[in-house]
Design a protein that fits this description.
Radius of gyration: 22 Å
Strand order of the largest sheet: 4-5-35-34-33-32
Number of helices: 5
Structural class: mainly beta
Largest sheet: 6 strands, mixed
Shape: globular
Oligomer: single chain
């Protein structure tokens, strides 16, 4: 890791950059020392709790929830990725929702009705006495500083092939799937092998370089931290991954990932199937970097926030990248996307025309910035969030002679400082947009067909990311959403059952809130 780049990141990356707030800077020496050596100076992060939870993603069977924790106050010597047992968590919450007195009595030390809100049940994430926690602490891994959002790569049906390296330290273990997270403070794309065992697909281990045998907190290290191209590609790819990797679009069928960078406006392309390893499996490699390619504001600032794919079934479809410093959405495709994975397919980023949303081309004021995006299931609507003014933009991305129209249809005013948006089919089959707003601690629900706000969901402090259960989820877990409450160290559980009396309310909380931010 380049010391100059790391020092630069320390000065820039803080709680202020992610949230627009200034956080304490204690523990900077631990960050200067970094996590690459054998020694890990500073305080180890807890393996059984949430701290500044940032991103989250569901396992393919919806039994587990993976959460990235960012050490944004620099208290700990790294972030973590933890695993939540959703079966266990939801059974505990359900015992209180249904007023099961026997079960409530057994859980009295770990779950409670929230003070002042009898509809909200809170359960601690860590073990309490003889009651195990819902965070499976034996699986926790430590990352670098400031992991961001999480993406999951399935192994079955992956464009990289089904030949996996043997898992020698877990009896009957296989790599079930992989997790990827951009890590901002130690700039890398970190990947984690999820080792499963048994017919039920139970998680036996998270491995990102330290194997599965080591007791206690395991580290993400070595080749599992992609921060530069391999030696064979160093001649034609920028020497290092640019600073502050942030947004990520994973294309499993095509075997590649596109990364946006929060400062500098660079874009990076990773071939997930680049280099053969023993047993026929392949390791990811950095194959293309477009430095400072995105538009700048009047002060020369630029930064990519979110990456969305138009058609998840087509590796050669269009991708959209939002610019957090300007009212610009870049479009791009990946050259070589239609070639079967090989050692070097010649994958490259091919930039298309940008969508400019300031006058005279659009309704946004000068200096507007765009954040999260989501695509409708059919790929015909792009939902994009603007922070200035706070609004949800609905764009027509339907095909016109093989090219997306990319025309603005509607602008809907939403809550202050929106960040992430997720899409879900609601009652009567309407496409609903769930817009997460950090500053106001709520989620706005927008009917995209009628272009109006139809509901508001109060969350915990500082909501940052949202995961919505898919239709394939087990019945007991279906119709719920999970939100990272960054500002209070908790995960909120949102009721998405249209027939429920608590529809569109946060009725559960994993972790007891800490009053860090107002």
């Amino acid at each position: 890791m380049r010391m100059s780049a790391r020092t630069h990141v320390i000065l820039k990356v803080s709680l202020a950059l992610l949230l627009g707030l200034m956080g304490p800077m204690g523990g900077c020496q631990a960050e200067l020392d970094g996590l690459r050596g054998a020694a890990k100076p500073g305080l180890d992060p807890p393996a059984d709790r949430f701290f500044f939870p940032t991103g989250l993603v569901l396992s393919p069977d919806s039994r587990y929830l993976f959460v990235s924790n960012g050490n944004s106050d620099l208290k700990y010597n790294g972030g973590t990725v933890v695993v939540v047992d959703l079966d266990l968590a939801m059974s505990r919450l359900s015992a209180f929702w249904s007023f099961d007195e026997e079960a409530m009595g057994e859980l009295e030390d770990t779950c409670r009705f929230a003070p002042g809100d009898p509809q909200l049940v809170e359960c601690q994430e860590e073990s309490v006495a003889d009651t195990p926690g819902v965070v499976l602490e034996r699986l926790t891994v430590r990352t670098g500083f400031y992991p961001t959002f999480l993406a999951l790569e399935p192994i079955s049906g992956s464009g990289c092939g089904d030949q996996l390296p043997a898992v020698s330290d877990v009896e009957g273990g296989v790599i079930g799937y992989r997790l990827y997270t951009p890590v901002r403070g130690d700039p890398s794309l970190t990947y984690i092998d999820v080792v499963t065992s048994g017919e039920g697909g139970d998680i036996a281990c998270l491995d990102c370089g330290s194997g599965c045998v080591k007791e206690g907190l395991r580290d993400c290290e070595g080749s599992f931290l992609l921060d530069a191209p391999s030696e064979g590609r160093a001649d034609y790819v920028q020497a290092h991954l640019p600073d502050e990797p942030y947004g990520l679009a994973l294309e499993p069928a095509g075997g590649f990932a596109i990364i946006s960078h929060l400062s500098g406006g660079s874009l990076s392309l990773v071939d997930l199937c680049a280099d053969p390893l023993e047993g026929g499996w392949r390791a990811p490699d950095l194959v293309d970097v477009l430095p400072e390619i995105m538009g700048q504001d009047t002060e020369g600032r630029s930064g990519g926030y979110w990456v969305a794919q138009r058609d998840r079934a087509d590796p050669c479809s269009w991708f959209y990248v939002s610019n957090r410093a300007a009212a610009q959405i870049m479009t791009l495709r990946v050259a070589g996307c239609d070639t079967a994975p090989a050692q070097d397919r010649g994958l490259r980023i091919s930039v298309g025309p940008s969508i400019i949303l300031t006058a005279p081309f659009g309704p946004l004021e000068s200096g507007a910035d765009l954040r999260g995006m989501a695509m409708s299931p059919d790929g015909d609507r792009l939902l994009a969030v603007s922070r200035t003014p706070p609004s949800l933009l609905v764009l027509d991305t339907s095909s016109d002679g093989g090219q997306p129209r990319n025309e603005l249809l509607d602008v809907v005013e939403v809550c202050p400082k929106p960040s992430v948006v997720r899409a879900r089919s609601g009652p009567l089959g309407k496409l609903l947009a769930y817009v997460v707003c950090f500053a106001s601690g709520e989620i706005y629900v927008v009917d995209t067909a009628d272009a109006q706000v139809v509901d508001r969901i109060e969350t915990g402090g500082g909501p940052n990311d949202l995961a919505l259960m898919p239709e394939s989820a087990p019945a007991a877990l279906a119709d719920f959403g999970f939100v990272t409450n960054f500002g209070e160290h908790t995960i909120g559980v949102v009721d998405l059952r249209p027939s429920s009396e608590t529809y569109h309310q946060m009725i559960g909380r994993l972790g007891w809130p800490e009053e860090l931010m107002q």
